[in-house]
Design brief:
Strand content: over 45%
Order of helices and strands: EEEEEEEEEEE
Radius of gyration: 13 Å
Number of helices: 0
Number of strands: 11
């Protein structure tokens, strides 16, 4: 079983950047497909990005494509989300998630483990 802890959220002006991190512990990180999701107030949790176990495959939501980059360092048990060109509509709690098995996964129902989330607020 893997434990996930997100960090790096905060308040930023529109057009700014943030880098989120997710620290994994308790299990072999390289066994897991990883993803980032977000949930804005009053909305359902939505897919942001996913990365395969060996970083050879990634996928992004259309709303963040070209602005966000997902990456991982298996030797450090870390997952990242570099967010550039932030917009007010990116404001949400961001969650990292882990899924046992290969490939990538865009559906939240495919993920077994979740972090507690980190707040990202983008002011206009």
């Amino acid at each position: 079983q893997v434990q996930l802890v997100e960090s790096g959220g905060g308040l930023v002006q529109a057009g700014g950047s943030l880098r989120l991190s997710c620290a994994a512990s308790g299990s072999t990180f390289s066994r897991y497909t990883m993803g980032w999701f977000r949930q804005a107030p009053g909305k359902e949790r939505e897919f942001v990005a996913t990365i395969s176990r060996t970083s050879d495959n990634t996928r992004y939501a259309d709303s963040v494509k070209g602005r966000f980059t997902i990456s991982r360092e298996n030797v450090k048990n870390k997952l990242y989300l570099q967010m550039n060109g932030l917009k007010p509509e990116d404001t949400a709690v961001y969650y990292c998630a882990a899924r046992t098995g290969p490939g990538i996964a865009v559906s939240r129902s495919w993920y077994n483990y979740w972090g507690q989330g980190t707040q990202v607020t983008v002011s206009s």
